[in-house]
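User: Okay, second chain of the day. Same drill as before: sequence in, structure tokens out.
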Amino acid sequence: MARLREFDDRKALETVRDLFWQKGYEGTSYADLSAATGLGRGSLYAAFGDKHALYRRALALYIDEEVQTAVTLLEGTEQSGIDRIKAYLDLVVDAAGVQQDRRGCFLCNAAIDMASDDPETGVMVREAMNAMRDALLQALEDCEVPDKAAAAEHLLAVYAGMRTMARAGLDITQLKRARDAALNV
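Assistant: Same drill. Structure tokens below.
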């Protein structure tokens, strides 16, 4: 008779997500994954597949939570478009300044770490970034901007850059200046 799993898949996947987010794909070993989750290699394989599959599942969880939070914020109707965009950029400022979370963006990390070498990860990254761009376009509908598509792509680049700045440990004042300059454009 097969043994029943005695761990919470979701909690284990959240732990794995945080580890890949912090250390990247290459920087994370199976020994790291086992130590962080408390699960043996066999249990990890049985539950999630190999390291590559586990990475993609962790990235999918990040997209479902973090990226979807940003998209939902941008698509909201309670505030003006510019206020929603400010709140979107403030996600970075608040993560680094208030929550002391300097991990940056797992999606940005995946774009650099794996997207060019792994077609499946590349698709995931592009789809998530395009979802944020589309949500930015929606937020820009009530803004007087001559080229909304270019503005949305610029804001997406600023967001990714701010996440990178936060990970690098730059001062919150610098993040705020980047946010404010983007909003002024």
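Residues 23 and 174 are 24 Å apart (CA to CA).

User: Thanks, on to the next one.
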